Amino acid sequence: MAEKQTREMTDTSKGTQRSAALFEEAKTYIPGGVNSPCRAYLAVQDTPRFIRRAEGAYIWDVDANRYIDYIGSWGPMILGNNHPVILEAVRQAAEDGLSFGAATEREVQMAKLLCELVPSMDMVRMVNSGTEATMSALRAARGYTGREKIIKFEGCYHGHSDALLVKAGSGLIAGGGAPDSAGVTAGCAKDTLTARFNDIASVEQLFADNPRQIAAVILEPVAANMGVVLPNEGFLEALRRLCTAEGAVLIFDEVITGFRLALGGAQQLFGVEPDMTTFGKIIGGGMPVGAYGGKRAIMETVAPVGSVYQAGTLSGNPVAMAAGLAQLTYLKEHPEVYNHINAMGTLLFDGIREILSAAGGKGEGNSTGKLGSGLHGGCTVNSIGSIGSLFFTPQPVMDFASAKASDLTRFAAYFRAMLRKGIYLAPAQFEAVFVSAAHTKAEIEATLRACAECFGV
Ligand code: HOZ
Questions:
Q1: How far apart are CA 83 and CA 88, in angstroms?
Q2: Considering 281, 362, 370, 421, which one is annotated as catalytic?
Q3: How far apart are CA 197 and CA 187, in angstroms?
Q4: Among 156, 253, 342, 432, which one is least packed by beta carbons within 10 Å?
């Protein structure tokens, strides 16, 4: 009966022929057949599923398999896929024109709303992606302080600009690869210093070694690109104090956490105010968009007011602004969304913890997809609100080193087994599981049944 219910909600009976054929063709024209490395499924050794459409909590591939979606376009689909309110806003905006490369009324509304919802920001500049947002925020911080060095954290990922591809998480480590990219010159990387997440002493040391040279400290307040890793109690507060004392700009990269952990993001949840904040896809409800903002004095260093140059034809694009405004306005007017996604997150992640507990002492993984192997104490689940990660390591995961202790072979086996049961997870250990407002108890319970089967419970 339980299995039947799962099958009705998901359907992976259609095979992967079309995805496989498209992937082969794509490899001729696109490096690795994909436009973003994770999507090639290298880390999980499977056929990448080519997606045709998504709706609510579900996603369909080109072979017509139906999955429960826990990627949600890597975060922005807080309301679920293809939410009617956002879709309608996009339709209406598109009627008036797709791009003008000129100032519009919606940009003013969007900037006003962002500054209202994130009180640490007095001003904000729209860009097109999280990569652009973090790159531009750092430039502004350097312009403002007149200093050159920055501190980032091992395993935090802030997009793919040169200076930030240093000890970075996300796709760089998905296949167990190096957290630094080829093609980044020593010159670009030399001003990027790295500290250990949750280790304030490592940050203090860098400040001590580089007096009055650090322009900014940038971090994901909840790291979500080495898997989900929570800040220890007092860590964010200590960073705040240190940056204030040292005259450095504290930047929260809320590309994943913004408007998800709370309407005002991680900074609201933890009660720590950064000087600057960066956002990405999450403010576009699915459209390509990003933004950086912060204290007026810092933002007024940006051109045309100040001398820090940054520009873009598609910045503030009317269709992206319409989508973003629709999503953020909906979230503002429906605070119950947060109760729901947090409750569903708790149900899912606590449910997985219970399964792991029950799986304690069971046999090793085998070809049937069972992943037992003494999982009681053999796995770690980190979660907060609607995001989380299952690590295949018994140790607590609180930084990059402990995240990398996860057994990637077992993660890959788990991923493949779940996919075949109709559960669409990120195809890499070091990404997050995202729960949306469209996930109900029914989807979560179906997911837990699939998970229990994987662990032989
Ligand atoms: N590394 C990205 C998420 N953290 C992957 C995004 C994508 O492939 O779309």
A1: 9
A2: 281
A3: 24
A4: 342
Residue 262 contacts residue 338 (beta carbons within 8 Å): yes
Counting ligand 1 atoms within 8 A of each CB, the residue from 59, 71, 160, 170 with the most, and so the one to mutate, is: 170
**Do the beta carbons of residue 72 and residue 281 sit within 8 Å?**
no
74 CA distance to ligand 1 centroid (A)? 6
> pTM score, two decimals?
0.95
Task: Evaluate: CB of 192 within 6 angstroms of ligand 1.
Answer: no
Tokens of 359: 């799986």
Q: Is the peptide bond before 427 cis (omega within 30 degrees of 0)?
A: no
Set 191, 253, 275, 399: catalytic member: 253
157 an active-site residue? yes
- Helix residue ranges, H only, 230-305: 235-246, 265-270, 296-299
Q: How many CB atoms lie within 10 A of CB 400?
A: 25
| Whether residue 253 lies in the annotated active site | yes
Please tell me the distance from the alpha carbon of residue 114 to that of residue 427, in angstroms, as a whole number.
32
Taken in order of first residue, the domains within the chain and their CATH numbers are 2-69+336-454 (3.90.1150.10), 84-333 (3.40.640.10)
Query: What is the residue-level pLDDT of the chain in tens, covering all 457 positions?
Result: 556 666 678 999 999 999 999 999 999 999 999 999 999 999 999 999 999 999 999 999 999 999 999 999 999 999 999 999 999 999 999 999 999 999 999 999 999 999 999 999 999 999 999 999 999 999 999 999 999 999 999 999 999 999 999 899 888 877 666 678 888 888 888 999 999 999 999 999 999 999 999 999 999 999 999 999 999 999 999 999 999 999 999 999 999 999 999 999 999 999 999 999 999 999 999 899 999 999 999 999 999 999 999 999 999 999 999 999 999 999 999 999 999 999 999 999 999 999 998 887 443 332 333 444 444 448 999 999 999 999 999 899 999 999 999 999 999 999 999 999 999 999 999 999 999 999 999 999 999 999 999 999 9
Q: Which two tokens stand for residue 54?
A: 């998504």
**DSSP helix, strand, coil percent of the chain (3-state; round to 5):** 40, 15, 45
281 tagged catalytic: yes
Task: List Cα–Cα distances, 160 to 153, 166, 299, 393, 412, in angstroms.
Answer: 15, 10, 23, 28, 25
DSSP string, 91-128: HHHHHH-S--SS--HHHHHHHHHHHHHSTT-SEEEEES
